[in-house]
Amino acid sequence: MSGEVGTFYNRHTDVYDAALGGNIHVGYWADEADDSTMRVATDRLTDLVAERVAPAEGQHLIDVGCGHGSTAARIVADHAVRITGVSVSDYQVELANSRRQSPDQPGRATFRLADAMELPFPDESFDGAYAIESLMHMKDKEAALGHIARVLRPGGRLVIAEHHLDGELDLPDVARMADAYAFFKLSLTDDLYRRLLREAGLKVVDHTDITENVRRSYDSMTRAWRDAASREADSEAAREWETAADLGEWFFGAVPQLRYGLLTAVRP
User: Fold this and answer.
1) How far apart are CA 98 and CA 229, in angstroms?
2) Residue 6 has pLDDT above 70, yes or no
3) CA distance 69 to 54
4) I want to staple 267 with a disulfide (CB 3.0 to 4.6 A). Which of 107, 122, 152, 243 is the partner?
């Protein structure tokens, strides 16, 4: 595991958890009249992903970039499946494995330290896969998608919930993004994802743009970054959080190319 990447996740997991109602991904609201809490909205996104994976009893799924295990925990509470979650953060894996699992729930989840760009599983090990806001942090998406496709059994689904760009940014925007999000690869266009999935041997069967449904999450995230800055005793770390908040407000509010989608692909 890269120490740099591990440090990134260790420093940000708790902040995102507090901002996003116990999850570390965005929420989904049906419309402007929907007054759901952040926790309800982020759980709803988990449910949308699970619905697209379509887990059947007895299946084995892989959670690619499992975070602290909240997504897998919700799925196994409702579905009689096994989930193996992987993360490059030992901190996140420890948190995920510390979650109490009721003996009465239908499914089970386990978590291990592993890099999605080098998945340590045999071919055709899993019946389905999902990746929620994790691929954007991976430097070699081609390798990650290739490994995911390799470990899927024929007929297995991969569901990606992710930010992407609808068109390229101009040079000043690229420079600002590079400063704000060191792990955010700017070539996350929808066309790129589709090409990489095809090259990995997966067939795209659905892409649903839900940008407007998740947008409410962004204000909560930037507020959390400012709160983190105000609590930070280290002045350099406080400046990093403030910079992230400033550039996050610009990126989430003023870059129309930013989109969020649910993409489903199948291994033939």
Assistant:
1) 28
2) no
3) 19
4) 152
